[in-house]
Amino acid sequence: MDVYLPIANLSVNGLWIVALGGLTGILSGLFGVGGGFLTTPLLIFYGVPPTVAAASASTQVTGASVTGVIAHGNRGGVDYRMGAVLVAGGVFGAGIGALLFRFFRSIGQIDVVISGLYVVLLGTIGLLMARESIQVLRGTGAAKQAARRRHHPLVASLPMRWRFYGSGLYISPLAPFIVGIAVGTLTMLMGVGGGFILVPAMLYILGMSANVVVGTSLFNILFVTISTTMMHSLTTKSVDIVLVVLLLLGSVTGAQIGSQLAVKVKPDALRLVLAAIVLVIAFRMFLGLFYQPEEIYTISPL
């Protein structure tokens, strides 16, 4: 079933796009990530221009996050107060990201920037997650020490502390606000929900309780991707509605499946699987920086 994507100026297999949406939806429910870190690169590999892939994937992430938040919220797995602070920072960061997106696009470097960010961020985070997951599964002393770790010392030094009862924390709201800004900026630039950065930051920087990390991450992703989608629609004009609908068809169902699996599978094993997926994507994006596509394309008007 071939369909035509008007903004991308490309014909694709619609069933393949729906299946991709389903896969990213499952990842969303399992790990608390929006799934955009997988959707955007795979769309690029399939021939969709990076600008269209990034803008359209952020919309698909929104749909997957809605169902994920509902599922985790029903079991008390969302810290709404922490999520609200993260969202405030994320919306502010999305504005910064929109300005950066327009700048890099104006100088013709946005595709390189998107791919480069994926390589650096996915590679770094994937290695860190893989190392700690292996340590935990082996039961080493370093892993046990990491399991007892609370928030980062810099977080403890920030003023004006609040109590975040859902996360079991007493920290300054400036810490999650700054984390939200970083995630919002990357969401705008890369078309990701930001969960692949937000989840490690919530665990290792903010020191949040593991049982609310996934749900709170999806809560943040939901509202930040809504704002970034609106900004993309109004500024970059790169959202392909046909592509978005196909992705949403699969992701909404996939998120429910992932949320059910999340409570049945060992968390450390899940994190190791996620780390492996992240590293594979990073390596493929790295290779993509060094070869020229068979067809040079643009979405700018002639």
From TrEMBL:
The keyword Membrane applies. Its main location: membrane. Pfam families: TauE. It comes from the Bacteria. It is found in: Cell membrane; Membrane. Belongs to the 4-toluene sulfonate uptake permease (TSUP) (TC 2.A.102) family. This is Probable membrane transporter protein.
